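Sequence in, structure out.
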Amino acid sequence: MKTILSEQPAAADRAVPDQGVVPSAQDRDAALGNDSQIAAELVRRHRPHAVNHLQTGVAFALWVLTALVIALVPPTDAYLVKGEAQALGLAVILAALLGALWLASRVWDTASRWLGAWSPWWIATAVVTLAWETLTAKTGVLSPPYVPSPGQIIAEGWADRTLLARSVGNSLLLLAVGIVIGGLAGLGTGLWMGWSKRAGYWLDPIVKYIGPVPTLAWIPIVFIAFPNSFSAAVFLVALTVWFPMAVTTSAGIRGVSREYFDVCQTLGASSRFLIFKVSLPAALPNIFTGVFMALPTAFVTLTIAETLGVNSGLGWYINWKKGWSAYPSMYAAIALMVIICGSLLTAELAVRNRVLSWQKDLTRW
C-alpha cells in the first residue's frame, strides 16, 4: 500500500513562504489546496473510470461474432449437440445488453464508468466463449461427457432448475446460519481476548491449537456427536468462521492505542463506552479482514459437509451428478457456486468500503 500524503509536506513547504513564522494548520491546508502539483496528482489517482470506446466496440463485436458462429456454423457430426438455442439466446442477450450500455454511456455516467472498468473482462469472456463453442459444438475437438459445450451446460442446468434451486436454497440457509453463529462467537471471543488479559491467557492456546485443525479432521467426531447432519454441518461452518474472526478481532482490540483509553477515562468514560465506542470501531478494519478470510473457508467447509454427510445443497448435488457421470449438470452447479461465492465476497467488500470510507483518502487499496 502506498500513501499519497508522503509528498505533501515538501509541496507545502514550497507553497508557504518562509518568513520565520510557523504556519498554522489552516495556512498549510490552504497551501496544499492551492498547490497545482498535488491537485493534479489527486485527480490522476482518483479519476473515475470512463468508457473506452475502442475496447467496448471490440467487446460488442466479439459477442456479435459469437452469436453469429452459434447460429450459422453447423454443429459437428461427431456427437449429438444439445443446447445451441440456449447458447444463442444468451449470446444475443449479452450482445444487446453491451450495446445498450454503450449507447447509454454517452449520457449516463454510471454506464460509462462501468464499461470503463469492465470492458476488458467482456472481451476476455467473449474470446473464451467463442473458443469453447468452436472446439466443442462446432468442430468436436473436445467432446462430452468431460468437456460439454456451453449450450449443453445451460440446457442441462435449466432442465434441472427445480432441484438446483432447492439445493441453492439449502446451501444458503446452512451457510447463513453457520456464518451468523460463528461470526458472533468469533467476535465475542476476540473481544474478550483482546480486552481481558486473563481471558487472553486461557483462550489464546485454545484458539491457536483448535482453530487451525482442518475441517476433514472434525467430520468423524461431529457427525457422531450431533443429532442430525444439518446441525453437524452448521457447527463445522461456524467453527471455520469462528477462528479467523476471533484472531483478527483480538488483534484489532489489542492494537488500539492506549492514548484513546486514557483520554476517554479522563473524561469519565465507562468500560461499556470504551468497549463499544472506542475498541470496536478502532478494530473494524481487522474485523472486516476476518470476515473476508472467513467467507471462502466457510464455503469450502459447506461443500465438504454437503458432499460427505448432508443430503441436500450444492455440494450434495455436485457429488450426486458426478456419480451418475452427468457432467453438464455438475458444471452448472459449480458455476452457480462460483457466482454465489463471488457475489458474497463482492458484497462484503462493498460494505467494508462503505463503512471504512474514511481510510480511502489516506491509503490506496
